[in-house]
Amino acid sequence: MSKKELHPKDYRFVVFSDEAAGFSFLTKSTAKSEETIKWEDGNEYPLVKVQISSASHPFFTGEEKIIDTEGRVDRFKARAAKAAKMKAALENKAKKAKKEAEKKAKADEAIEAKAEK
Fold this sequence. Notes:
Elements: E1 12-18, E2 23-29, E3 36-38, E4 44-49, H1 58-61, H2 72-116
Parallel strand pairs: 1-4
Antiparallel strand pairs: 1-2, 3-4
């Protein structure tokens, strides 16, 4: 394939729709789609649904909101909570082990003190 054949040549009008924001726009694209939509000019065009666009992206809207279409944020929060529980459990286990070691050390000191008398 030569460099001249690198770019696609099958550009056509396509409607991109961000349904969460209620925003659609018509542009030329090579994006494939099985769906079609009747546009404002009365013509029918291929429809490509997008999860985020300039109408819903925090950079363009100025809002800080989490857009989580695949549950990634929930899974991250669940992993973070599980990690925090594990950390707390390990800290408690370490504290108990330290107390046991201190008790044993005191008992050993008491035994040594009796042995010296």
